Amino acid sequence: MAHDIYTTLFANTVKAGTILLFPTLGEIFAERSGILNLGVEGMMLIGAFFGFIAAHSTGNPYIGFIVGTVAGGISALIHAFISITLRGNQIVSGLALTIFGSGFTTFYGQKWINMSINNTIPQVSIPILSNIPFIGPIFFKQDLIVYLSYLLVFVMWFILYKTSIGLNLRAVGENAKASNAMGISVYKVRYTWTFFGGLLAGAGGAYLTTAYAPFWLDGITAGRGWIAIALVIFAMWDPIKALLGAYLFGGINALQFQLQASGTTIPSAILNMLPYIVTFIVIVISSIIVKTRHIKPPKELGIPYVREEK
Amino acid sequence: MLYFEKRPSVPLYLKILMPIISLAIGLIIGAIAIYITGVDAMEVYKQLFLNAFGSWYAFSETIVAATPLILITAGLILVFKMNIWNIGAYGQYIMGAIFGSYFALFMSAGLSKPVMLSLMVIASMVGGAIWALIPTLLRIFWEVNEVITTLLLNYIALYILKFLMYGPWKNPTSYGFPLSKTFPQTAQLPIIFEGTRITIGIIFALIAVFIVWFLLKKTRFGYEVKVIGDNPLAARYAGINVNRNIMISMAISGALAGLAGIVEVSGIIHFLQVKISADYGYTSIIVAWIAYLDPILTIIASLLFGGLSSGGYSIQISMRVSYGIVGLIESITLFSLVGAQIFLHYRIRWKKYGT
Fold it and tell me: 20 to 30 A from A37, CA-CA: which of A82, A90, B269, B324?
């Protein structure tokens, strides 16, 4: 019996972690290219909203997931245009994107509040693997999107460290001018990965409303975008560590709900505060580690690139 | 091809036009957003304007909404000038409200109004300053990114408030609503214009603007802030104590946000509740930008966005247009403003290849 409780807890950890894993991976790649996007929370909201509406109107949660993902990517293009082409301040533009996502979804979401979708993304057990004791039900009795996220972590790690695409990406984030001299289009690289970051933020949001919490509420992402940005530092800009970080926080989320469901005496406000407190502590510890081990963020993170000035 | 040519100096007419054009773009795209939902956008804007500036009472409500904005933005200007990003005004505002309310709720017996209000004001400023100094110290000692920590502290502050409102500070006779007891008369800020809700808080706000203006324009501290903002490394070489200046500015910024919290709770709402702000913490970032980080222009920008906020609330009720429209207009204004900065510093030129 106790075994069941833990299996459920860990399986939910993976689910809740997946919501964070997508945006964290996306932001890692955007930041590696030199673009800091503080609009993750806004892009997630937009992804969650369009994902929800598409799933609601078509009855197909996969369509919802795809639509939400694309919507997140499109919203990232606003930030890309302002911070890459117009060289605007990335911090302020990112914040504007978050305010935009929140305002947009509040404005258009009014009539969808408290509606829910019936068909959520279904569970698909992987044969053989799902029969492994303990590990099986946690990692291999999930849905297709979770499997997609496993694949994505591996593919992104491979791209980043083993391909010329990744090499170019890292070069642009470290030294845009030298990359340009080597014939890499700085603008193209930055646009690509900022857009990609938006796609994944949208995916995280869409996964939230099409699989995890299949209803619409104002501000349903509840700060997960900010936690994802914090996780980038925890992960030290590495896709594999992002997986660990996302599951750590997924675990806190899952635990929080399990405790609430079990009728604990801990006030719900304290339980809800938990992820932010833990993120806060983790960000402090990882910042100290980053500092003492001399791990550097991408050198030109947040600095606009100006081609014309020599 | 198109290319950008650096301007030798920023022309004044552009500095004046830019915020106006940005706000206009925000309003135009906002109008399209409203139109799509099948609502008469012109009517919405007409009502918005009338409810913000159309009568003395409407305008007085705009001043009420602008007061916390002025207070918060005055502080933000100081830190933004040094490229320190305090995104935590919302949390500092809440902590100020909580600290100040403690006296109103639990220490009010036998205190005269001036003593009571002074205690509340000081407590709120201390509360806000503490909430701002935590991320500042972490940044100074361990280079912890203040954007993320100040933001997380917003959520932590909000849940502390929720905890208090649903638990120990809840009014037992509020029928389960998460509200505190109503503040006693002695703990309510006095109204300075009869028939409106404008309290002495607006005076605090104007004093805050004056102090920030004075600090920036007339003191060595202000000069150092400017140097740090232009080039922190050079400032360090010049012997400027960068960390000390960051700490002072953040403390002032947090204290003013905290003060804004108690001004709102003690002056307008008269009890503590979960929802005590109209996103002042985020709106003030836009106000600071649209005012070019200038204390005096802050007052004008705050009145504009205060009007947007108070008018937004009115149309939400009268025309059933979601308050989200305010965030939409604000964010698009901010996008245009940030994007348009380039035209301040560069001219767009056309050049043929090879010339």
Answer: B324
